[in-house]
Amino acid sequence: MATKANSVPHPTVIKVDPFKPAAEQKGLHNRWHPDIPAYAAVKPGEVFKVECVDWTGAQIGNNDYSDDIRDVDLTKVHNLSGPVAVEGAEPGDCLVVDILDVQPFEEMPWGYTGIFELNNGGGLFAKEFQSRAAKAIWDFEGIYASSRHIPGVRFAGITHPGLIGTAPSQELLNEWNRREGELIQACGEVVPAVAFPPEPKGVHIGSKEPLKPEVLEKIAKEGARTIPGREHGGNCDIKNLSRGSRCYFPVFVKDALLSVGDLHFSQGDGELSFCGAIEMAGIVTFKTSIIKGGIEKFALKQPIFLPSPVDPMYSAKLVFEGISVDYHGDGKQYNMDATVAYKQAALNCIAYLMKLGYTREQAYLLLSAAPVESHVGAVVDSPNACVTLGIPLGIFDHDILPNPDGLVKKDFGQCAIRSDGVV
Amino acid sequence: MATKANSVPHPTVIKVDPFKPAAEQKGLHNRWHPDIPAYAAVKPGEVFKVECVDWTGAQIGNNDYSDDIRDVDLTKVHNLSGPVAVEGAEPGDCLVVDILDVQPFEEMPWGYTGIFELNNGGGLFAKEFQSRAAKAIWDFEGIYASSRHIPGVRFAGITHPGLIGTAPSQELLNEWNRREGELIQACGEVVPAVAFPPEPKGVHIGSKEPLKPEVLEKIAKEGARTIPGREHGGNCDIKNLSRGSRCYFPVFVKDALLSVGDLHFSQGDGELSFCGAIEMAGIVTFKTSIIKGGIEKFALKQPIFLPSPVDPMYSAKLVFEGISVDYHGDGKQYNMDATVAYKQAALNCIAYLMKLGYTREQAYLLLSAAPVESHVGAVVDSPNACVTLGIPLGIFDHDILPNPDGLVKKDFGQCAIRSDGVV
Amino acid sequence: MATKANSVPHPTVIKVDPFKPAAEQKGLHNRWHPDIPAYAAVKPGEVFKVECVDWTGAQIGNNDYSDDIRDVDLTKVHNLSGPVAVEGAEPGDCLVVDILDVQPFEEMPWGYTGIFELNNGGGLFAKEFQSRAAKAIWDFEGIYASSRHIPGVRFAGITHPGLIGTAPSQELLNEWNRREGELIQACGEVVPAVAFPPEPKGVHIGSKEPLKPEVLEKIAKEGARTIPGREHGGNCDIKNLSRGSRCYFPVFVKDALLSVGDLHFSQGDGELSFCGAIEMAGIVTFKTSIIKGGIEKFALKQPIFLPSPVDPMYSAKLVFEGISVDYHGDGKQYNMDATVAYKQAALNCIAYLMKLGYTREQAYLLLSAAPVESHVGAVVDSPNACVTLGIPLGIFDHDILPNPDGLVKKDFGQCAIRSDGVV
Amino acid sequence: MATKANSVPHPTVIKVDPFKPAAEQKGLHNRWHPDIPAYAAVKPGEVFKVECVDWTGAQIGNNDYSDDIRDVDLTKVHNLSGPVAVEGAEPGDCLVVDILDVQPFEEMPWGYTGIFELNNGGGLFAKEFQSRAAKAIWDFEGIYASSRHIPGVRFAGITHPGLIGTAPSQELLNEWNRREGELIQACGEVVPAVAFPPEPKGVHIGSKEPLKPEVLEKIAKEGARTIPGREHGGNCDIKNLSRGSRCYFPVFVKDALLSVGDLHFSQGDGELSFCGAIEMAGIVTFKTSIIKGGIEKFALKQPIFLPSPVDPMYSAKLVFEGISVDYHGDGKQYNMDATVAYKQAALNCIAYLMKLGYTREQAYLLLSAAPVESHVGAVVDSPNACVTLGIPLGIFDHDILPNPDGLVKKDFGQCAIRSDGVV
After folding, report:
1. Cis omega (within 30 of 0) on the bond before A383?
2. C-alpha to C-alpha distance for D252 and D90, rounded to whole angstroms
3. Counting C-beta atoms within 10 Å of the first and last residue's C-beta, which end of chain C has fewer, N or C?
4. Touching chains, B (3+ CB pairs < 8 A)
């Protein structure tokens, strides 16, 4: 007979409260540094769960104004769960991580996508659009998300951690700070910022035992910000590193020290509006193993992974092309720049969605959040890189295909904007 | 009863000889200019075929040296079939083109992938690798390609025209020449070149009737080179614009004047070695229709398309990540540069393939030619863009997955190199 | 800010204990009858959850013997959660049911697949194999299942309710009893039974308020057994009616009275060993709507559905063929019998798996539980129907392809068998 | 340089004329018998082509009446190309056949689907519909087919040989004749026939050299008809045994003696109208290899195969269910009969398509020809087998989904019927 005795749930090694500010919780940290001590430990082969707050640590609410987006404190992000020590891992090894599942909390069946202000976070079109805060709340209904702020669409989630990585060694951390510092210096003061140097303000290390002040100070002064992805993984925001995938991380410190956070219910390739995924709090299920000497064995400079067999299959798509000419702006020719090409493809798609009746903000949010596919077409046809962006037809409840009569323009209202009405 | 009388083959409106220099053939041209007269005309709704030489116009042979790649004359490329006038199309319209099929010639069941010399064509890693000419010949066996120069792989083709577009208006052409000229001026003399200005040498316009000298001279002086993709389509090298897809082109001149060439049996996202696809001569089957005023109706700045339902499905992949730090080179941090990120992902994959026993040249060619998928992961996590590159497991006849014992290194020989042995 | 107040979980309208005998629980019933009163009520558009025990009602344990399978009491199955009244549904309508999610209980991360005894339940090969009880326990690790009883495989679940349907009208119920009674009479006493007439023994109706004795007696005497699928849906055991699918049910009684149970973590097409899916207890998330007069509008004789976009994609398969000749038995030719053809294909696959080292019981269980695809090839080539059965390559951790050296036979032990050792 | 000299086309080992009666051509035969001599010979590893007439041998024309279907001479079918001897194959071996490509003839870009008369060929619903001859002509436009007789649909082909197999040994042939003879005897005279005994009328063996009269007589008297698939493959009509697949055949005679024919441009699972695929003449490209002792190594009772990676991907479907109760007929309950279940699912789909405006004949033809997927859901839930049939949404140029307002009924005319107007 089935009994509790013969039914052992997988242990949760880090527990959090998604409704409580991250800074008040243990098991969370928001900088990368080798001296952040392990909060939990697991053995290879063990299945375990890790709970995560949303990346802002509960700063954003389920409501119809974007004031919380406007006012978000970015010195406090991302709030990561961990580090988790994997017993036996040593520098030079490869840590194999099975991302067995990623689920929202049952008591929090919603997430959000935000457009950040030009002066507070930015985003891919922060300057082009002179961005003001806007957002969409997404309701989770089982595997699907839909939004009262972007009517007419529903899609299956492709849940994944936007951010997952092993801890850097001191050497690697120094290298990050060197190269990013040089970029900051080279660019001077620009808005939005090109990169984020270590920032003592807002640091939170929710370790088991209080850290010695000198350790905390070192972390605050040197700790790498979590915004970019780097050699250890980190905030790569790869939508297909989703539940069911297997990832191979390089190990830089003893016990690997795995951290995870910034869970996404869904995301489009590019995640263009910066807070572009459907951000959520939730639970990740993991299993790990160690391959000794894996960095050398696999020439591992950055993680590699096997995608999941259960990513949603929206095979029919409408695909937009872009090249490295800023023809939506001043017409300048760039040299084989895939980022510029990506932007044109996205702007072409936004223009198309606006013909269907979506506002620019809705279109921008939708491309960020839906399972949009962006491929690098070619990066050798000088001077134009070509990038494509495909939007699945199956996520719309209406026909969006080009047809001889043109497109039917509907009224989809507007997404959540600031309470002062500024867009 | 089935009879010849009731079985009408689709007409071929342009015929070519794949074994004859392109410059000696009619129906081919190798510049973009509104004054190139239509070579053939079709009505909307008609199914028709267009034959194409390979992009070099028979310069490359089925042999085991890369001397022909080294010596290729790039002033003569690409050789395009056309223009085909579509009756009734007018500037401002959208030309709908069904790419119904793309097949190699029965009498030429092979194609090639080339690495070009640093000084003659370049390629994505021309400088990094100080590239010398190399190539792989691919044998076509039905839907599959395999190569004596890259043993251990076989894959289904995803046949497509690397280059397809409508003719530019004079205004658009002028704009191209302006912006590309400015880039050339800004960069100065560099190797490989950043862009290619109009070049009278090598121009070929194989029109029905001889052109007036002043027209030919104008085309030679102003005609845009065919290397980059642009607003009209052109050399976009998008592997998924394959047989079975439907493409929506903006129309800039009367009758649209569609041209096509640079057929590929297969290509990876990025086409990294420049002549990176499996280049072939062959036959395209088309059908067109016109949507009046389509540019305005669909906000069309560049073509959009619906991909084919028959692209090969290699769902299991090993995915490599890259960020916009040149960690394979001098370690410099770039600002959200997806091209740099793509390059790191590709270099990570090449390093992995070399652990399996492929030479650097073989790996470079393989990534260019096989149905590799490259996604823009995220382009908002300052300063790092993240790009992924996934290589299908199913194209290998051996297991390439990471495993605890490391990778088995086999001897796959080498691809075709120069007869003087220089690599 | 995210708060409990703005985060409303979806309500659970039926709660059960997966470790308690079903007969002791409310909200469960194990017969189909129009007089079974609604246990819960929902409005169209509402998202709600329903908890389900496993189909046997906790009779099977997580252990290494199959005695519980041998001794299972089949008069008590299936235990269904419901009925759920959908307000406003009337006979003749179509009830649209979104199966938004299907998850195992967190506290019970395992399921089982069983081979039933010839004399107690049977199965597709009960007679051919003179079946004795055997089973495999499957451990759930996020989206994956694996089994200590069938080493070497792991696959992503395709979670679905094996059984879901609306209540029959009295007329429809009478028709079921008539036609099944005639079959039973025509076949006489056979083992295993061809069909199951109403059976008062074991009836359980866990209604809110105690039923009047005469009502209970009527249900016990007339209530249709839950083994077969019928016009209302019921036990169709369709693996692709999985989480994410949308199903259109005919409505036969006021408020539709939807019931659900027999949850599966995974199943192969055919579910051949009878208890062939990975049986589990768990939670279904639903949303409904009503289409008035839908039976007539859609010519609805039985449910139709739209499959989920997230079913696992194992595209590479090894496919076995079968025809309607019992060439594994007495060589008899059957007349266009797809069931016989299915059996040959399955037996061909079992024979192949045994060459790899699996026992017959392991192979039989594996085909039942894994995401095997069985297609009806052709049913018009008299006298042979042709049916195929494809087993995904990606579920094995070793290479199972035919190769010139033959197949490597490994030792995979044996599945759970009876404690008396009888197989 | 590319030259004819370095471009060697694959040889065509059997050439036919698709517009000439099969009986007048060499390289064709229409019975299975071990004494039919090889018409061509190939070596393992060689790529070669085989041309095929359509299965009737040019009896059906591209016109708008079905009289040719009504009058077809079925004693003459199928016309197979071959046999092809594979050097070195011996009884007990496994013949590996790569079906590298399947293409229609360029000069015959059309095919047909037929409903046969109850008294001449039948079909799955011959009795239910009291079938009279009807047909649809399909035009091939590259990879797509569409029909003037069934407007509103277009789909990508999944080209395949409906019929492919090795020659039987004398023992195997005797066994076929025994068992099929017993079935014919058991059923008595029925219409349509349950099976087809050897039939001297219409025999054609187009061997290189004239056969000795006694050999021809033996073949005529004993030769197995080609209608059903059997242990050697034969007329299995499996749509996914398509171009790009690899098939493993058992070898029963020296040199294997492979024959192929009955090419299909497309087919639905089940091929229900008997001549249900899109029948065509065309060209198959093959490559073979031999695995010594493969029958024993792989427990090979019938071919097994690896499907192609390029089958069209129409993931969104509307799925119909059926059970083994003839609820479209007399309401009889059958015992776990998957064929009856398949029929109900198909009839449910036909009823739905008729709500959209298609005639019963159009719907029947469409289900036969389009890439419909039919899965065996479950064959263990006594007494009801459950079978599903899914029709892809992407093949329609209009929305066919159920919606609250019911289905829009359009006028699609009618398919080709008899010139006397009888339907």
Report:
1. yes
2. 7
3. N
4. A, C, D
Please tell me whether residues B193 and B300 are part of one structural domain.
yes
Is A174's pLDDT higher than 90?
A: yes
Q: Which of D236, D271, D306 corresponds to the end of one domain?
A: D306
Q: How many domains does chain D have?
A: 2
Do B354 and B273 belong to one domain? Answer: no
Q: Chain D contact for C157, CB < 8 A?
A: no
pLDDT category at A283 given cuts 50, 70, 90 is: very high
Question: Is the CA virtual torsion A361, A364, A369, A371 positive or negative?
Answer: positive
Whether a cis peptide bond, with omega within 30° of 0, leads into A109 is no
Residue of chain A nearest B347, judged by CA positions: A301
CB B372 within 8 A of CB B270: yes
CA distance D407 to D353: 10
Q: pLDDT-derived band of residue D288, with 50, 70 and 90 as boundaries? A: very high
CATH number assigned to the domain comprising residue C203: 2.60.120.580
Do A285 and A377 belong to one domain?
no
**pLDDT 10s digits, B200-246:** 999 999 999 999 999 999 999 999 999 999 999 999 999 999 999 99
Structural domain including B356 reads 317-417
Which residue reads 């995301």 in tokens?
A: A267
Query: What is the domain-level CATH number for residue B376?
Result: 3.10.28.20
Which stretches of chain C drop beneath a pLDDT of 50? Answer: none
Q: Is the pLDDT of residue A112 over 90?
A: yes
Q: Report chain A residues whose CB lies below 8 A from the CB of C73.
A: none
Whole-number mean pLDDT of chain A? 97
Residues A309-330, buried b or exposed e (16+ Cβ, 10 A)? bbbbbbbbbbbbbbbbbbbbee
* Same domain assignment for residues B86 and B217: yes
Give yes or no: residues A269 and A339 share one domain: no
Chain B residues in contact with D100 (beta carbon < 8 A): 141-144
Domain finish residue from A252, A277, A306: A306
Show which subunits contact C, needing at least 3 CB pairs below 8 angstroms: A, B, D
| Domain co-membership, D300 together with D247 | yes
Closest CA of chain D from B6, distance in Å: 6
A170 in the same domain as A238: yes
Q: What is the arithmetic mean of pLDDT over A380-391?
A: 96
3-state secondary structure of B171: helix
The answer to whether residue D315 scores a pLDDT higher than 90 is: no
- Residue A404 domain flag: yes
Could you tell me the two tokens for A90?
């040593």
Query: In chain A, pLDDT over 70 holds for what percent of residues?
Result: 100
Q: Is C30 on the interface with A (CB under 8 A)?
A: no
Instruction: Output the pLDDT for position C221.
Output: 98
Q: Is residue C365 part of a domain?
A: yes
8 A C-beta contact, residue A254 and residue A108: no
Q: Residue length, chain B? A: 423
Q: CA-to-CA distance for B207 and B209, rounded, in angstroms?
A: 6
In-domain check, residue D423: no
Both C202 and C254 in one domain: the answer is yes
Q: Which amino acid is at C337?
A: D
CA–CA min distance C110, chain B (Å): 27
Q: What is the pLDDT confidence band of residue D274, given thresholds at 50, 70 and 90?
A: confident
What pairing do the DSSP bridges indicate for beta strands D304-306 and D317-323? unpaired
Angle at A408 between CA A406 and CA A414, to 5 degrees: 130
pTM exceeding 0.80: yes
- Strand pairing category for A47-52 and A12-14: parallel
Distance CA A53, CA A57 (A): 6
Q: Tell me the pLDDT tens digit for each residue of C314-330.
A: 989 999 999 999 999 99
- Asked if C100's CB is within 8 angstroms of A141's CB, the reply is yes
Q: Is the alpha carbon torsion for D304, D310, D315, D320 positive or negative?
A: negative
For residue C25, tell me if it sits in a domain.
Answer: yes
Asked if C3 is an interface residue toward chain A (Cβ–Cβ < 8 A), one would say yes
